[in-house]
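My current task is to audit a protein record that another person submitted. Please read both lines and tell me whether the tokens look consistent with the sequence. Do not assume that whoever made the record got everything right. I have pasted the whole thing underneath without changing anything:

===
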Amino acid sequence: MIVLGSTGSIGVNTLEIAKKFNLHVDVLVAGSNLKLLNEQIALHNPLIVVVSDRADKSLVKHHDVRQGDAAILDAIEEAKGNLVVNALVGFMGLRPTLKAIACGKRVALANKESLVAGGAFIDMSKIQPIDSEHFGLWYLNTTERPVERMLITASGGAFRDWPLEKIRNATLADTQKHPNWSMGQKITIDSASMMNKMFELLEARWLFGEGEYDALIETKSLIHALIDYKDGSTTAHFAKANMQLPIAYAVMGKAEGEILKPVNLLEVGSLEFREITTERYPIWQIREELIANPKRGVVVNAANEAAIELFVAGKIGFLEISTRVINAFHAFTKEPENIEEVFALDSEVRHYVKAM
């Protein structure tokens, strides 16, 4: 397999599955965590390694170290493995997804932005989702019973228990205090704003087709997805918050042995569900319009990435992220007609948001 984002949480769990089932790794793509990358190289002996910073090349203990976005695309094409695990963060993950599909490879996808921005132009038959929410929907959606609604769950992010008036003054450090687990900086910010869940709903729309999609907060993150059927019944997917289960299915197509220990409901005791409100999560006000017009996901993603960049730099406040995204969403209503227009629109929206 080819692992893009090998030192992040998805990449680390993917390599745990590779180790457990003795699977060969052709390519490792990583960012700046060179200590972990060198440990992964020693264990998995990949053919090609790609890093983001040219200055890091000499510090990587491998005979074929490459650098940059173009090198990722070349490695995908050269590698013999037919599975690309795309765990890159951000819009930069779209081109590798497109390249993998063009090369006839399957994509185990954790890069949300690939479908959010380019879902209309991606062959879904080549995609196996490894986000726990989409895996949960896929796992449940195996019957012929007509579906009324698909639901995914959210943790609520760093500010789910904050007084509303306090959120306006939230700092970057505050956004990183996730109540349930540790993730990368951007995805933790997206969790706090609920943008992460907005993206996942849009991904679900591309993966499973037209229909009704929604989300709710489940504070313990043990239920990842639910399906309401037209007959009035509901099913739920329970699993511990460990990505190895969806990764195992994506990599091997099945999981006949135990990957995780089952959830012990007696130990859990109780579950708490909450509504996602626009007062706490302003971005939620465009949910229905976005799902009804999914090609405009490129606008939301570009605006969000540009606004987060400003927030991290200390130029805008936390709530201004959602304000700028909503503004851009209403300002850019023309849908892209091809993948080239997706990339052009992405650039235009970023400029617009930074100039606001």
Notes: The two ends are 43 Å apart (CA to CA). The first helix runs from residue 9 to 20.
